[in-house]
Amino acid sequence: MTDQNTGGHVPVLLGRVLELLAPALTGPSPVVVDANLGLGGHAEAILAAHPNVHLIGIDRDPFAIEHSTARLAPYAARTTIVRAVSSELEEVLADSGHPVIDGALFDLGVSSPQLDEADRGFAYSYDAPLDMRMDRDQELTAADVVNTYAPRDLARVLRDFGEERFAARIAERVAKERAIEPITSTKRLADLVREAIPAATRRTGGNPAKRTFQALRIEVNAELAALDAALPASLDALAVGGRVVVLSYHSLEDRLTKQVLAARTRETGPPGLPVPLEAHQPRFRHLTRGAELPDDDELARNPRAASARLRAAERIRQG
Ligand SMILES: C[S@@+](CC[C@H](N)C(=O)[O-])C[C@H]1O[C@@H](n2cnc3c(N)ncnc32)[C@H](O)[C@@H]1O
């Protein structure tokens, strides 16, 4: 596999993803949805391992669509590639003629090219316009959030989506600076964040801009709202025996995934019923105990896997 094919993105926990999905893909014509197609790394491996699988790949980034379409060309007869936001999953499945699926994969967040192409403005390590849109046809950019949100709302974004304890100080500093001149570059924002937090904290815990950049990216792309719609939609679409695998890269995504799967894997009846009713039995069971992490070998090969957390579940009942 050349780097041009992979786009420099190494699929995370690939062996485990394949192992977890495999038992659901033994039928004559299984359907898998990859809700974060990206460069098509996981998708290509699924298609190669399962000659009967039809794969529906979704991504909101036109670059990802173009790249994965070329990469998956050998499998074109059994792939449907759709540029969409994952929250549109139900419609995408209906339009594809496959409303019922056997497998679903979520490999959340950004891809390596999105991070590495400086001008996309995701990274504090490059100086670039404050953009951070996965889909550049969308209007809202990180610069809009930074320059137009009321300080209270900006602080909320930094706190809720970045778990930034100095959110209010950063928002105040940003508001003061933008009154003089709009903040349009990643470097200027990263410098402001560094200046806004206490000197003692600056020396610990990596780049102080990390949490602010994560928060802005989640806000700009409404990432948690998309997951909150897409993951339940994928569970609803799974046939009995169907499986979902979710790879998340920060605690907010993982927490949401854990909550959605926990709600589906527990009994729904009132406590204390002498005989549990069939209608109250869980429709899903966990396939992972807690969240699984990449091992040291994988981290040595792919440092970007470091924050990955994998959870998976299987549909065990209809209804
Ligand atoms: C980590 S990458 C996926 C990499 C892929 N599994 C591979 O092996 O090449 C995540 C991809 O999901 C896309 N993405 C993130 N959130 C999305 C959403 N809500 N809807 C559609 N695509 C989304 C991003 O544009 C990015 O291409």
TrEMBL record:
GO BP term, pick one: rRNA base methylation
Keyword rRNA processing: yes
Enzyme Commission number(s) from the entry: 2.1.1.199
InterPro entries: RsmH, SAM-dep_MeTrfase_MraW_recog, SAM-dependent_MTases_sf
One GO CC term, this protein: cytoplasm
Enzymatic reactions: cytidine(1402) in 16S rRNA + S-adenosyl-L-methionine = N(4)-methylcytidine(1402) in 16S rRNA + S-adenosyl-L-homocysteine + H(+)
Binding-site list for S-adenosyl-L-methionine: 40-42, 59, 107, 114
Predominant subcellular localization, coarse grouping: cytoplasm
Classification via Pfam families: Methyltransf_5 (PF01795)
Keyword Metal-binding among UniProt keywords: no
Keywords: Cytoplasm, Methyltransferase, rRNA processing, S-adenosyl-L-methionine, Transferase
Transmembrane stretches, start-end: none
Region spans: Disordered: 289-319
Domain of life of the native organism: Bacteria
GO molecular function: rRNA (cytosine-N4-)-methyltransferase activity
Compartments in which it is found: Cytoplasm
Function as written in the Swiss-Prot or TrEMBL entry: Specifically methylates the N4 position of cytidine in position 1402 (C1402) of 16S rRNA.
PANTHER family in UniProt: 12S RRNA N4-METHYLCYTIDINE METHYLTRANSFERASE (PTHR11265:SF0), S-ADENOSYL-METHYLTRANSFERASE MRAW (PTHR11265)
Family: Belongs to the methyltransferase superfamily. RsmH family.
HAMAP family: 16SrRNA_methyltr_H
Protein name from the UniProt record: Ribosomal RNA small subunit methyltransferase H
Organism: Herbidospora galbida
